[in-house]
Amino acid sequence: MNQTEWVSKFSEFESVNELNEEDRKLIEQARQSVMSAYAPYSRFSVGAAVLLENGQVMLGNNQENASYPIGMCAERVAVFAAAANFPGIKIKSIAITALSKQFLIDKPITPCGACRQAIAEYEHRYSNPIRLVMTGETGKVLVADSIKHFLPYQFNGDDLKAK
What is the largest CA-CA distance in the chain? Predict the structure, then answer.
């Protein structure tokens, strides 16, 4: 038997003020987007901003539905909008934040499993890591240089091909 150990690498900042200007602007855009979220059931609004290599930014926010499984997370809304509006343009980074009407979110919000898989698809598609910048309403900021730090064993298109 062999054992494999994976190491996840993140940078942690005490506040958004410690980030570089590009990341600060992207977080601000995600915070603006969170205000348009449709979250009447969970009252947990998430906003995302996707920065493309051409400088364009696509926004997304969670869109809930009374039939819970058909809602959509902010990250996938933003990533899919980027791919639909700018096909072939690589995603450089994604900023994610959240707001609750019930409590203060004072820690970084990370993508759910489905969003991690969707982000992994675009990293694989373009052979390009996607930087994730995550925060709550206040508090620390977590930064990862790739979704691989969240999802080391990825399922992707290579698994669907015979070798």
Answer: 51
Global model pTM greater than 0.85: yes
Annotated catalytic residues are: 75
Candidates 90, 82, 98; CA nearest to 30 is 98
Contact 99, 105 (CB under 8 A): yes
| Architecture of the domain whose range is 22-152 | 3-Layer(aba) Sandwich (3.40)
Per-residue pLDDT of the chain (163 residues; tens, 9 = 90+): 999 888 889 999 999 999 999 999 999 999 999 999 999 999 999 999 999 999 999 999 999 999 988 999 999 999 999 999 999 999 999 999 999 989 999 999 999 999 999 999 999 999 999 999 999 999 999 999 999 998 888 888 888 887 6
